[in-house]
What does this fold into?
Amino acid sequence: MSEKFLVDSNFWITCANELYPQRHFPSFWAAMETYLADGTILYHWSVDEELHRKKDGIAAWFDGLADDGKLTVINRPRDTPESYIEVCNWPLSCDRPHAKPYTRAAIDDVQFLSHF
It folds into this structure.
């Protein structure tokens, strides 16, 4: 079985805006396209929702891949397990004595995603 990777929206945003802008690193984005098309990198519904909600430019790239049949979004199950909702709500009650508390904006993002 080949390895599969599930990366979050921060990976895509940071790569596009800071580390590997598409206009300067086309070979990086060509490789990412290949990995997305062959299923090595998986594209999750929550990442898609976040990229579109933030109206980040990278969402248009993903839309183009989907339109060309080179991307499959892992859709949210119709009956999301209660454990998933529990994990999404964890930042509301967690105790992090050695770290800064989560910001309200971060908690709101998680709550927003848990209601889909």
